[in-house]
UniProtKB/TrEMBL annotation:
This is BAX inhibitor (BI)-1/YccA family protein. Pfam families: Bax1-I. Keywords: Membrane, Transmembrane, Transmembrane helix. GO terms for cellular component: plasma membrane. Belongs to the BI1 family. It is a multi-pass membrane protein.
Amino acid sequence: MNNYDEQPRRVVNADVGLNSFLTKMYGWMGLAVLLSAVSAYFFATSPALMSSFAGPSRWIILIVWFAFPFIVSGQALKRPALSFVLLMVYALITGAMFSGFALIYTGATITTAFVSSATVFIVMALYGTVTKRSLAKVGAQATAALIALIVAMVINMFLQSPMISYIFSFVGVIIFTALTASDSQKLKQLYLNSDGSGTASTGIAIIGAMQLYLDFVNLFLFLLEIFGGGNSRN
């Protein structure tokens, strides 16, 4: 009789742990997006702050910005508290770097791109979390396509073709739409394969928040270029 009583209890505990993990991961990812938006607004409305990214210092900031995701992911399981702080700092820096978009695109364009990105992200993250179908192959194909896209974008930096760049934006949206779903499923599975301890759960949640934040940011950037095709301030 005790065996029958314990089985439902273990299932309930597993569900509670998973729900707690998902709440932390998506909650921290959402907080990072919010901090980026606030940071972008303050920098965009303050010429003095925006000018801090001009000159040689911008290269230092750019290097730090590229290094942060690797540091956060590498330290998340060992030092989750430090990684959480670094994730939030990274979100603030990202928002500050993107504040210049306010000089290029109209407020309506930025808002449309943001709302569209949020809608696509929520739908695909939900799908990736609840679907029983394995998205590992989709994720691998999307990652390969992303590498090819990066190479093509570097080549187009020399060609400077606006049309090619515009087409790449649609490709980028497709890639990060797929990655959002596959990453959501992969991170859920990563938690389920862990020991479920508090430290492991928090560390994986931070890694997931960083990964999904990057998916959202890239989705936003590509949609911004699409919607901004005829709605820039130029």
